[in-house]
TrEMBL record:
Pfam families (alphabetical): RRM_10 (PF22976), RRM_5 (PF13893), RRM_8 (PF11835)
Protein name: Polypyrimidine tract-binding protein 2 isoform X4
UniProt-listed SMART domains: RRM
This protein's UniProt keywords: Phosphoprotein, Repeat, RNA-binding
Segments forming domain RRM: 59-133, 181-257, 338-412, 455-529
């Protein structure tokens, strides 16, 4: 219909960046997708008094600084985890959008969440605030594409079949045949665990089963919901999103399978409906308390904002924050802190080098400071918040030099080096330029081989002249008992099992980077296997 004049409710904020309430003018020449919005001088005057920093809560949200090529689906996906999205208006010429949620409560939750975790779309930060308008009035004939996407999403949310005859171009929602999704992760520069996937996808419904595997050198997973509708909603919201900032991209399709057969509950597969399943050979068993928690659907509610690299475009994926390990500190937000406080250390034995080696299994340690007045405690600065979270989850409660160590997030942002000329007895060491960092190279295989401390160690870079007996003797000399040994990969690698996890930790600290001759430095890490 030509010449329609429709009122559009839009929010008011700071200065010219905000669109004032005005009219959408459509003429035979106007571009439907790039709507023309005008405001006259009276409107400008009228709204000056409302130009305040924090508007009163409203179920209409104003979203700014959107990337130019962003789609309606991506904007709607920002709101999906918080409740039903009831309307959307894209203002592409201005790189802005208005999103209306069903309730003010959902909008408040969304704004509060994104004030703690900056949302990103296509790796760009975007900004969300309340609009001054209480509802969004749009003319559906001018907003057809957005309305089609919205109808499709609503069909999924209300468990109806998507409307027949509705065309949604690249955002098309096809009827979901299967409750099983096939997930491929591209650019996996950080480890993505089964728990991370559970955390992300649980936002869209009860996840019943997950199986992870590597195929064609890519980490993949099959994930089963109780209802195909949940699978469809998760695919719509998460396909193409990054789990961590600029990496670990989710590629999601429906699987041809309609049911997964999970035999074992371990770090590769899990049936959340059957916590009693065995762990299988060579896989770490689930702690009984964890297994019991898995039996409850509400066991793994997210701690929003627990990791800083999570520049995730929607809060469903942001739930991965709490998931870097099963044993986090519930309710405590890591906020991207890179510095750890380690206490209850054996002050007679511990050195900055030993802490660098052990914590270096989970990230690139930058600096270590053993506290001058409290030598059973140390500050350790990792390369990023994800690494500090991993190290805390895996090393808190482990035994080092005979004492159970405690690892928590420090309030310090960095570890200070001593002033020049000041002798601090070698208690502080800068490892920023260490050649021993395991994770400096993007895409390194080390990212996929991060495991909890275990009695079995993985050895690599073994020269041809070194025999099994040499390695058994070397590791026995660290004060433990070698229980089993197995060469593989033409004797370049081996698995070696100590009697206890504590003995394996000690052996790793003592022998990682040990010079075996022929310019071969031994590499030691924890293994998920047993011999």
């Amino acid at each position: 219909m030509d010449g329609i004049v429709t009122e559009v409710a839009v929010g008011v904020k700071r200065g010219s960046d905000e669109l004032l309430s005005g009219s959408v003018l459509s003429s035979p020449n106007s571009n439907m997708s790039g709507m023309v919005v005008t405001a006259n001088g009276n409107d400008n005057k009228k709204f000056k008094g409302e130009d305040k920093m924090d508007g009163a809560p409203s179920r209409v949200l104003h979203i700014r600084k959107l990337p130019g090529e962003v789609t309606e689906t991506e904007v709607i996906a920002l709101g999906l985890p918080f409740g039903k999205v009831t309307n959307i208006l894209m203002l592409k010429g201005k790189n802005q959008a208005f999103l209306e949620l069903a309730t003010e409560e959902a909008a408040i939750t969304m704004v509060n969440y994104y004030s703690a975790v900056t949302p990103h779309l296509r790796n760009q930060p975007i900004y969300i605030q309340y609009s001054n308008h209480k509802e969004l009035k749009t003319d559906n004939t001018l907003n057809q594409r957005a309305q089609a996407v919205l109808q499709a999403v609503t069909a999924v949310q209300t468990a109806n079949t998507p409307l027949s005859g509705t065309t949604v171009s690249e955002s098309a929602v096809t009827p979901a045949q299967s409750p099983v999704l096939r997930i491929i992760i591209d650019n996996m520069y950080y480890p993505v665990t089964l728990d991370v996937l559970h955390q992300i996808f649980s936002k869209f419904g009860a996840v019943l089963k997950i199986i992870t595997f590597t195929k064609n050198n890519q980490f993949q997973a099959l994930l089963q919901y109780g209802d195909p509708v949940n699978a469809q909603q998760a695919k719509l919201a998460l396909d193409g999103q990054n789990i961590y900032n600029a990496c670990c991209t989710l590629r999601i399709d429906f699987s041809k399978l309609v049911n997964l057969n999970v035999k074992y509950n371990n770090d590769k597969s899990r049936d959340y409906t059957r916590p009693d399943l065995p762990s299988g050979d060579g896989q770490p068993a689930l702690d009984p308390a964890i297994a019991a928690a898995f039996a409850k659907e509400t066991s793994l509610l997210a701690v929003p904002g627990a990791l800083s690299p999570l520049a995730i475009p929607n809060a469903a994926a942001a739930a991965a924050a709490a998931a870097a390990g099963r044993v986090g500190m519930p309710g405590v937000s890591a906020g991207g802190n890179t510095v750890l406080l380690v206490s209850n250390l054996n002050e007679e034995m511990v050195t900055p080098q030993s802490l660098f080696t052990l914590f270096g299994v989970y990230g690139d340690v930058q600096r270590v400071k053993i506290l001058y007045n409290k030598k059973d405690s140390a500050l350790i600065q990792m390369a990023d918040g994800n690494q500090s979270q991993l190290a805390m989850n895996h090393l808190n409660g482990q035994k080092m030099y005979g004492k159970i160590i405690r690892v928590t997030l420090s309030k310090h942002q960095t570890v200070q080096l001593p002033r020049e000329g000041l002798d601090d007895q070698g208690l502080t060491k800068d490892f920023g330029n260490s050649p021993l960092h395991r994770f400096k190279k993007p895409g390194s295989k080390n990212f996929q081989n991060i495991f909890p401390p275990s009695a079995t160690l993985h050895l690599s870079n073994i020269p041809p002249s070194v025999a099994e007996e040499d390695l058994r003797t070397l590791f026995a000399n660290t004060g433990g008992t070698v229980k089993a040994f197995k060469f593989f990969q033409d004797h370049k690698m081996a698995l070696l099992q100590m009697a206890t996890v504590e003995e394996a930790i000690q052996a790793l600290i003592d022998l990682h980077n040990y010079n075996l001759g022929e310019n071969h430095h031994l590499r030691v890490s924890f293994s998920k296997s047993t011999i």
